[in-house]
Amino acid sequence: MRYLWAYSIPIITFLAISLQGFFSFATVVFSFILIPIVETLLPVDKNNLKDEEYDLIRVSRWYDALLYFNVVIVYGLLFYFFFIASTTPLKIYELVGLTLCMGLVLGTNGINVGHELGHRSNYFEKFLAKMLLLPSFYMHFFIEHNNGHHLEVGTPEDPSTARYNQTIFGFWAQSVFKTYFKSWQIQMRLNRVENRSFFSLKNDMFWFTVIQLLYIFGVYYFFGTTSLMVAFGAGVFGFLLLETINYIEHYGLRRKKLASGRYERVSTIHSWNSNHILGRIILYELTRHSDHHYKSSKKYQTLKHHDESPQLPYGYPTSMALALIPPLWFKVMNKRVPENMK
Fold first, then answer.
1. Percent of the chain scored above 70 by pLDDT?
2. Are 63 and 301 in contact (CB under 8 A)?
3. How far apart are the two ends of the chain, measured CA to CA in Å?
4. pTM for the predicted model, two decimal places
5. What is the pLDDT of residues 307-319, one digit of tens each?
6. Count of CB atoms situated within 10 Å of the CB of 323
7. pLDDT class for 1, splitting at 50, 70, 90?
8. 273-285 burial by CB neighbour count: b if 16+ within 10 A, else e?
9. Which residues of 67-85 are buried (b: 16+ CB within 10 A; e: fewer)?
10. Closest Cα partner for 57 from 307, 309, 293, 285?
11. How many domains does the chain have?
12. 281: domain range?
């Protein structure tokens, strides 16, 4: 039941949209001020499931249902936000605050859950993953993450791995644009291998483009210009949130290149982790990222802590805020990057 806390961000965003005024920034304050404060007071939880617990939890459908419900939450909140934005004379600061709040929902309950479901094997869950990536204009993540990032993480070929001494702002430019173009490269390679037409129903990148354009047009047609602007703003903030998480997850960690020219296998030392409990729960254990890369098919509720994995000194929300101040980030993190990876 603790994973119900993952709904705290959309619940607070619903209240922010309803109350407006200074409450317009409520989700931002909750995510980047209240959570970091509480995480400093709570103990770090390194415990793993016992074998008998693991076997029970791994097959429980309740954990899946908690993920599926995010589709209803995300699209319900989007409709409510667009309705309010198109019918209520909001002040500029209210629009900005509510857009940031909605962007947080799209990043955490949208892209993050879409990431989890995108690793599943059945069509239904993959379809839900794509739906959750749509409002952030990041459907291409579905292709590049599974066919690129997980193979090339910790190497210069991976645009989602931040280099040592690379600022978050330089990383955004690298990851956002290179990931998109790499998705097209992967898609065109798949088309050639399977002898598909560009307009094939299996050419995901083509249809992702069409669907996202239809989404933008639909928002404008039904809700008007203001809603179109906040939809765009929330989507951009949502995917920048994802890229900030990518930044802190792999900053400075490199895989060794072997004599054969290939890279060493991905292991539990190639991702930064955090066992700060609130971040773990609200982000569906994304913070146990090393185990996810070690075996990406594992469901979120079964991910483990590994003692050899490098640990972030703070939880994810605090680390993300810290990354926005590069000199401070470098001062805290550079001494923690293993010398043989720099």
1. 100
2. yes
3. 41
4. 0.95
5. 999 999 999 999 9
6. 23
7. confident
8. bbbbbbbbbbbbb
9. beebbebbeebbeebbebb
10. 285
11. 1
12. 2-341
